[in-house]
Amino acid sequence: MAKYRSRAAADRTLMAWIRTCLSLIAFGFGIPTIVRTSEYPIIS
């Protein structure tokens, strides 16, 4: 039973890391789009 709980905890941790990485990647792709369409562009 302890082995199952450890495996489940490791799976949850891995999924959390993957979710965080995908969110950061999406955020990185979204920022240039927002900056380009902004009324006051920071980067020309």
Brief summary of the model shown:
With 44 residues, the protein is mostly helical. It contains one helix and no strands.
3D structure, described in words:
By secondary structure, the protein is mostly helical. The protein has one domain (1-38). The chain has one helix and no strands. The chain has one helix at 2-37. It starts with a helix and ends in a 7-residue tail after the last helix. Residues 5-37 form the DUF202 domain. It is found in: Endomembrane system.
Key terms:
DUF202 domain-containing protein, single chain, DUF202, transmembrane helix, 44 residues
Topology, element by element:
Elements (H helix, E strand, L loop, with lengths): L1 H36 L7
Q: Total helix count?
A: 1
Strand content: under 5%
Q: Roughly how much helix do the residues carry, as a percent range?
A: over 70%
Question: What distance separates the N and C termini?
Answer: 58 Å
In the predicted model, the low-confidence regions spanning at least 5 consecutive residues are: none
Over all CA atoms, what is the radius of gyration? 18 Å
Mean pLDDT reading:
89
User: What's the helix-strand series?
Assistant: H
Major beta sheet summary = none
